[in-house]
Design a protein that fits this description.
By secondary structure, this protein is of the alpha+beta class. The chain contains 3 helices and 10 strands, in the order H-E-E-E-E-E-E-E-E-E-E-H-H. The termini are far apart. The structure holds dinuclear copper ion.
Length: 196
């Protein structure tokens, strides 16, 4: 008759129980896989940040959300697309439950574009798919992002921060026009997207 091992933990395992050495090996293997995945994701973040100018906007500029519509840069008559003396373009918008004002803006292709946004109420998000434009719009601060659209096109502009019951319907649009066509638009037409 076989001798009983002194340590009860060293008894032979019953069927279906995986030995500790196998568990340890499997866990180590998964740790290596997880670390490799993290390294790949970090590399993607760093490479896209450097090559695609994808980074969190870092503009810190305060604004009084309660008086946006009454005075200063974000009064209604100053919203929309404006051409600067150096030829670049600045777009000013207000994000509020549940829409952007103006609802649609036009900008030229191949030109530096600076978006400046302020929120009138809660935190909203401003995202243009397939570009480096992606920022939160936090009440009390001006969100500023710069980009340059290589080609004309339509950019849907979803709010991507949950801002209330109407959040999923908070969509607007940026229309990128060929440069010469944009130049021929009146200032009013640059801030509307009504089909001509
Ligand atoms: Cu605004 Cu979600």
């Amino acid at each position: 008759m076989a001798e009983e091992p002194a340590n009860p933990l060293r008894r032979p395992l019953s069927d279906g129980i995986v030995p500790e050495s196998v568990v340890a090996y499997t866990e180590k293997r998964w740790i290596v896989i997880m670390v490799a995945m993290l390294a790949v994701m970090m590399a993607i973040v760093v490479v896209t940040a450097i090559t695609g100018a994808l980074h969190p906007p870092s503009n810190v500029e305060v604004v009084d959300s309660t008086t946006l519509h009454l005075q200063g840069e974000f009064v209604e008559s100053n919203l929309g697309t404006a051409v600067e003396p150096d030829g670049s373009v600045t777009v000013r918008m207000i994000a509020e439950q549940y829409g952007f004002v103006p609802r649609c803006v036009r900008v030229p292709a191949g030109t530096p574009v600076k978006f400046r946004l302020a929120s009138a109420d809660v935190v909203h998000g401003f995202l243009l798919p397939d570009t480096n434009v992606n920022t939160m719009v936090v009440p009390g601060f001006v969100a500023e992002v710069r980009t340059n659209f290589a080609a004309p096109g339509e950019y849907p502009m979803p709010c991507h921060e949950f801002c209330g019951l109407g959040h999923q319907a908070m969509w607007s649009q940026v229309r990128v026009e060929p440069e010469e066509r944009f130049t021929n638009l009146t200032p009013g037409e640059r801030t509307r997207c009504v089909q001509q």
